[in-house]
Amino acid sequence: MTRPAEPAGHEVPAMRPAEPVAWPHGKSAAASFTFDVDAESAVLFGNPAAAASRLSVMSHQAYGPLTGLPRLLRILAEHRVRATFFVPGYTAHRHPGAVRAIADGGHEIAHHGYLHESLAEVDEAAEAEILDRGLAALAEVAGVRPVGYRAPMWELTYDSPRLLAERGFLYDSSLMDADVPYELDAGGATSIVEIPVHWGLDDWEQYCYLPDISGSGLIEDPAKAVSMWRGEFEALRREGGCFVLTNHPFLSGRPARAAALEGLIEHVAGCTDVWLAPLGDIARHVRGLALKPRAIPKPELRGSPP
Ligand SMILES: [Zn+2]
């Protein structure tokens, strides 16, 4: 078969897929339960003054650290499962006791912006300032220097990998182009471990409904949501992948949802062929494999279509 020639003057860097990952302890796949403790920050970042004046909306978000989080921490403790909690700096400042309870439970605390800022239209200097502000808040409140990062709304920028590597972060968990972790080229001779996620493994799309703010009004049955997540878990398990589930305490901390999630946690924890660990442990394992970093070049735009 003859391949069409590349147009002259357009060198397109080759992208290669992530390679299979060998899991430790003879396990055939990996899994991690992760929680984004967005609380009020998830709705404050867009228009802080307007959102902050809405008591009912603020109470919907505060349910996470006040009521949902203690329930989820109890469930995780009962099943002896350690998880990763991504905490915006603002959540740490507004709910310091909740964030300290996460650390006291032996879980990993990772970075999730300061006020859950969208980075879609933020320049490099502003992104760096947000990273440093979030680091300062987690250090001040929980005495933690996180090794992991997840961009709010999973909106990583082309600057993020380098900014994270410069600050000593080991890993990010925001991208979606693989079923297994890999080393992501961060420019120069540096890289960070990337642990991929997907919207299908996020409770926001299942449960979130805030009139005028987020969601369509359709709130799913927890049995349906967990059935979908379990289907992905079983398929990734067969393929040697890495199952990363993202839940929010203000959503999945509600009783029937937490109970359904507990069933999934119990099932995954009971699968002896699966390595269940916080993302930081998974990232350290992947770093030890010395994988060749993958670059994800920015698409080259070739002018307007004819
Ligand atoms: Zn978030």
UniProtKB/TrEMBL annotation:
Positions of transmembrane segments: none
Entries under Gene3D superfamilies matching the protein: Glycoside hydrolase/deacetylase (3.20.20.370)
InterPro entries: Glyco_hydro/deAcase_b/a-brl (IPR011330), NODB_dom (IPR002509), PgdA-like (IPR037950)
Residue ranges of every copy of the NodB homology domain listed in the record: 55-277
Pfam families for this protein: Polysacc_deac_1
The protein's name in its UniProt record: Peptidoglycan/xylan/chitin deacetylase (PgdA/CDA1 family)
Organism, scientific name: Streptosporangium lutulentum
